[in-house]
Amino acid sequence: MRVPSPPLATPARPTVGLGADGLRLARRRPSDVPDPSVRGSPLPLDTSKAVWPPRARLVPCRLGRRTLALALAALAALAASAVGSPRAETLEGSLGRAYRANPELNATRAGLRATDEEVAMARAGYRPTVAADADVGVRNVQGAAGGERLARTSFPRGAGLTVEQTLFNGFQTDNDTHRAESNVLGRREALRSAENTILFNAAQAYMDVLRDTATVELNRNNIAVLEEQRRQTTLRFRLGELTRTDAAQADARLAGARSQLSAAEAQLRARTGVFRQVIGVDPRRLAPGRPLDRLVPPRLELALGIGLAEHPRILSALHAVDAAEAQAKVFEGRLYPRAGASGVVQRRRDEEEPGDDVLAAGIAGQVTVPVYEGGQVYAQVRQAKEQAGQLRIEAEQVRDAVRAGIVAAWAQLEASKAQVAASQAQVQANEVALAGVRDEARAGQRTTLDVLNAQQELLNARVGLVVAQRDRVVFSYGLVQALGRLTARFAELPVAPYGAKAHYDQVEDLWAGLRTPDGR
Predict the structure, then answer these.
(1) Which of 101, 104, 219, 519 has the fewest CB atoms lying closer than 10 Å?
(2) Where does residue 455 rank: exposed (0-12), middle (13-18), buried (19+ CB within 10 A)?
(3) Digit-coded pLDDT (tens) for 250-267
(4) Are the beta carbons of 108 and 80 closer than 8 angstroms?
(5) Quick one: angle between helices 244-279 and 448-483, nearest 10?
């Protein structure tokens, strides 16, 4: 006959309740923790006194209409550290850090600035070219002329200035400028696409750290519960109330929990490294992450319309088509007549006789009509047209890919909302089941293995709850990224937006100068 066992002492652990739109965190002192079969109200959390790692446990809360962001205080408290600034790092602040300092994003900006110079190079075709030259030499003449011997030395020298201006080149300069401007616009859209990707990666890294921190803490608390379970099981085995099998089961489950904790800690360390890579700093005190629902359209049809009209990948592909068509016209312009004018001013001294001083100036016009170029230019025109056709087809492929991405992101977000509610219900049911199994075990109607299984199911449900909350936030950012609107301007990040046009305005019509606008 089984003797009823005393209730297990449950260690302090974070209390994360799941509502329709979020988690709720509470902290309890060890003396405040009741018997596991008794459910009580959580106490408020003072995050300013949080320690690393905090102790916490999961309990259910009622469904509400508060935003998921406020409910994610659980994950934020789990990530709080005693070391660092008294102010918590917010998700928006972390995105701002990534926007300012991410090396991949900064490299894309530098590439755009380099592309801006293509416009200045193309517009150089409108301007004259000026060249100055000078020479000096020595000439020694010895001999006889008219019965007189000659012996003189002179130093012929001179300087000149040549100015050339293209008057017509088959519209090559116009089309080359159009090509360069299209490349600049395309690179701006590529920068916006990179910004979307980097900010999404930053949001994902932020929420991954919160999720994995909560998972580590849940596994630690599970170990504390299993250690108490093993202690009581061992004691009752020594008293002859339980069998060796019961004790071995408790030992095995504790060993498995320690293995799970090691895996969870390893994953947390890996996510911390990704956080540093994307955002630029180590995670310290992380505040709750809020979903970006204000940028999510109410219907899928509206989302598709926004994405197909605004997504930077589509716009970049269309600008690439424009640039390719302009390049074909540049090649075609080589078949047109070319006209230009040139002017020369020269001054020569001691050219023939010592004391000579000649000033000469002239101006001339020139017209060149290509007759046959060996077929090379014709082939270049045809090739450029085929390349433009290829890019046009690729633009349609990009459009289809964007459409598919929006549909997939929308489905993920909708599924995550349902998973939050389902995970909350699962946690509630598993808590009731665990309390019942423990009561039945104390009455001798359940085995130690039943209790251990119920405890493991509750842990899995709590971890699933944390994962569902993380997915709810990340997938909202994923949908906004799929729309092409995950930018500092749309997300209203606390950071000054990068002005791509400012550098372009500084260099597009710059006639001379070696220094970049920032002084390099």
Answers:
(1) 519
(2) buried
(3) 889 899 989 989 999 999
(4) no
(5) 20
What is the per-residue pLDDT across 481-502, written as a single tens digit (0 to 9) for each? 999 999 999 998 999 989 888 8
* Amino acid present at 458: L
For residue 239, report the phi and psi dihedrals to the nearest 5 degrees: -85, -5
Q: For residue 43, which amino acid is it?
A: L
- The pLDDT, as a whole number, for residue 39 is 30
| Both structure tokens of 81 | 């550290």
Give the burial string for 374-390 (b: 16+ CB within 10 Å, else e): eeebeebbeebbebbee
> What's the token pair of residue 298?
């109410």
pLDDT on residue 181? 95
Q: Are 281 and 100 in contact (CB under 8 A)?
A: no
Which pLDDT does position 393 carry in this prediction? 96
Exposed (0-12), middle (13-18) or buried (19+): which is 241, by Cβ within 10 Å? middle
DSSP sequence for 358-411: EEEEEEEEEEE-----TTHHHHHHHHHHHHHHHHHHHHHHHHHHHHHHHHHHHH
In angstroms, the Cα distances linking 224 to 11, 132, 235 are: 6, 86, 17
Q: How far apart are CA 308 and CA 407, in angstroms?
A: 12
For residues 218 and 462, is the Cβ–Cβ distance under 8 A?
yes
Distance CA 21, CA 297 (A): 18
Within 8 A by CB and 6+ apart from 374, the residues are: none
Q: Which among 517, 507, 435, 513 is positioned nearest to 181, based on CA atoms?
A: 507
Q: Has residue 133 got a pLDDT over 90?
A: yes
Residue with tokens 């000439």: 139
d(CA 323, CA 118) in angstroms, rounded, equals 12
Lowest-confidence region among 38-47, 128-137, 324-333: 38-47
Using alpha carbons, list the distances in angstroms from residue 442 to 35, 186, 448: 13, 71, 10
DSSP for 196-246, please give it: HHHHHHHHHHHHHHHHHHHHHHHHHHHHHHHHHHHHHHHHHHHTTSS-HHH
- Give me the mean pLDDT over the 276-280 stretch: 93
**Cα gap 66→20, rounded to integer Å:** 8
* pTM of the entire predicted model: 0.76
